[in-house]
Amino acid sequence: MEQRPLGTSGLSVSVFGLGTMTFGDETDEATSHEILDRYLEAGGRFLDTADVYTRGVSEEIIGRWLGSRSGIHDVVIATKARFPMSDDPVDRGTGRAYLTRALDASLSRLGVEVIDLYQMHAWDPATPLEETLETLNGFVEAGKIRAIGVSNYLGWHLERAVTMTHRRGWAPIASLQPQYSLLGREIELDSMPLCLDQSIGMLPWSPLGGGWLSGKYSRDMRPTGDTRLGDDPNRGIEAYDFRNTEHTWRVLEVVEDIAESREVTMSQVALNWVRQRPGISSVLLGVRTIAQLDDNLGALSWELSDDEMRRLTEVSAPGVPLYPHGFLESYAGVDYWERLGTRVESPLG
Ligand SMILES: NC(=O)c1ccc[n+]([C@@H]2O[C@H](COP(=O)([O-])OP(=O)(O)OC[C@H]3O[C@@H](n4cnc5c(N)ncnc54)[C@H](OP(=O)(O)O)[C@@H]3O)[C@@H](O)[C@H]2O)c1
Q1: Banded pLDDT at 235 (limits 50, 70, 90)
Q2: From the CB of 243, is ligand 1 less than 6 Å away?
């Protein structure tokens, strides 16, 4: 499987990373281990987990898998900290005392001596950024982690972190893990141009929009059955109503059209669009069955043409906020979308 650089960290990651958010929850341990085996067999070498996934169980499942398979030395492991690990308010955040405990707990659950990529799961408004970054730099110096990543940061959060690490000579931010798919392109408005400018690797999560882009949900038919939305009647219906928009169905029509003409699945079309966007280090796959994994890995055997990329990019283009993006485009000659290969109508005409 193709390996891509993870920002300027010196690490390389597989272009399809294996997300493990469902491990220990929707996906039991035996199936999780089969999925890990199949991913490894296909040449995949990048796993993404988090302490909070099933409150530590996802990390433990990976740890037991690593322990039970001999000769796995070259898998790059990413985990995260920040969200509550218990009801105790001290068990969360990105402050020094908590992160020090959280990292040791993750190392122990995973059964490893060093974590390749340690990510802050989201911006933490309660902790000075300086404290977080100094702590993380200390982890790198102590040899407990190899690189630092962040997730769910706004553009200005990321810019502050990049500038602070540069000024202080601390370990740089290697990656951003943002939500990104044909149904969620908000990051193109701020953090993605910054990542391109600063060579920060992007690790998109929910590349299928939580399963929507596989085509499994239908217009005005609320989900039932064995799907992420059908599983949870309350949260699932809320999530369905949120995405049940004309924009979604227009995007899905084009995805379906391309899938039919190429004789591939809609999931493969959607995953390849993310894989072929600029600045992507690794697309994080989320699967709950081997069949889904096999389908998704099939995307690696073909590529979207320039024309197919253009059609998908056009139909899924996010609206441009009137200000400042529209203003800059109309009155200041800023070709905001140029580097992202997207031209959209300026709302100012
Ligand atoms: N940093 C963060 O805040 C954050 C947040 C979310 C996720 N993540 C990471 O990103 C990874 C992927 O996220 P995600 O699970 O939301 O990704 P996703 O690809 O958008 O959705 C995955 C879901 O889509 C369905 N699916 C996948 N492949 C399919 C196929 N070929 N055909 C039909 N359905 C298919 C499955 O759901 P059903 O079968 O159940 O419907 C699967 O659980 C996670 O495991 C995690 O590592 C990070």
Answers
A1: low
A2: no
Alpha carbon nearest to ligand 1 atom 4, residue: 205
- Quick check: is 92 in a domain? yes
Q: Is 58 in the pocket of ligand 1 (CB under 6 A)?
A: no
What's the pLDDT score for residue 2? 97
Pocket test for ligand 1, best of 13, 214, 229 (most atoms within 8 A of CB): 214
More confident residue, 224 or 177: 177
Work out which ligand 1 atom sits closest to the CA atom of 229: 41
- Give the SS3 label for residue 8: coil
Model pLDDT, residue 48: 98
At 344, is the pLDDT very low, low, confident or very high (cuts 50, 70, 90)? very low
Residue 288 lies inside a defined structural domain of this protein: yes
Is 168 domain-assigned? yes
Distances (CA, A) of 151 to 129, 148, 158, 248, 285: 14, 11, 9, 25, 16
Give me ligand 1 centre to Cα 14, in Å: 17
Whether 346 shows a pLDDT value over 50: the answer reads: no
Residue 53 resides in a domain? yes
Global pTM reads: 0.94
Is the CB of residue 202 below 6 angstroms from any atom belonging to ligand 1? Answer: no
**What is the tens place of the pLDDT at every residue in 270-296?**
999 999 999 999 999 999 899 999 999
54 lines ligand 1 (CB under 6 A): no
Total count of domains within the chain: 1
Domain extent, residue 186, equals 3-220+265-301
How do beta strands 16-19 and 12-14 pair?
unpaired
CB of 335 closer than 8 Å to CB of 329? yes
Return the CATH number at 108: 3.20.20.100
- 15: region left, alpha or beta (phi > 0 left; psi from -120 to 50 alpha): alpha
Residue with tokens 């049940």: 244
Choice from 26, 183, 208, 295 to test ligand 1 binding pocket (greatest atom count within 8 A of CB): 208
What's the mean per-residue pLDDT of the chain? 92
Q: Would you call 98 a catalytic residue per the annotation? A: no
